Amino acid sequence: MTDVLPGAHMRAELISQPEAWARAADLRDGQALLPNRGARVAVVGCGTSWFIAQSYAALRENAGFGETDAFAASEAFVDRGYDAVVALTRSGTTTEVLELVDRIRGRIPTIGVIGDESSPLVSLVDEAVLMPFADEKSVVQTRFATTALALFRASLGEDLASAIADAEAVLAGTDDDGLRDAEQYTFLGRGWTIGLAHEAALKMRESSQSWTESYPSMDYRHGPIAIAAPGRVTWQFGEAPEGLSAQVEATGARFVQHPIDPMADLVRLHRVALDRAVVRGLDPDQPRNLTRSVILDA
Q1: Locate the SIS domain: which residues (predicted)?
Q2: What is the pTM of this model?
């Protein structure tokens, strides 16, 4: 019997992301099931899926497709006249998502974007966009999250060729320039990349038990910048506000901003998180206190 190296599943899944994005971009029938332009939409999920929902909501509304809100499934205010609810979940077994969809069943049209095609959510939603090719074995989610976002971006008319090329270039490289060894990480975003910042912080916490924080870029200077110091990293997804880099560097902290598609930059973070976990003797495929799906006792 061959021993499986720590993080082997996560590594295989993060490496496969560009291919999965391309498949999602070609999933025209699935994209057609998502709410039409002009519909008022709530997008719900838990953990990683909630953060991806935030990114989709910002992208959809800013693209002129209609008012779009994102909620943690446990805290969703869906009785506000929404035309549809999109439920995002890798496993399709998350308790809060199942309870929410069951509660609104027959009253508000629901579309599930689901990784596990055998999950109970498939039969609960009105329409199911199934992406079994993006499902994962690792508890720490990488591929499904970004592939769902690729699906959403393609459904809004975005061409993902540049994002895919950027991700391939990131994965072809081997040097992450010392990012693995920082004492602390703060992740920042603007607009749709705020969700990516929150997701990056969660990934680093889950995989390597690291001290991470995340904020909207413009809010960072309203207090959180106090944590910046030598040996710490402030990582911006997408374009940074004017003057922020200089302010962070004046604290002695390192400011990181890569001029690539932010989704591809999240792939870079995935690799940094994995490498940090492994060098600490941790296995992100089986992180402390976590399981693939949160199923609550009755």
Answers
A1: 31-170
A2: 0.94
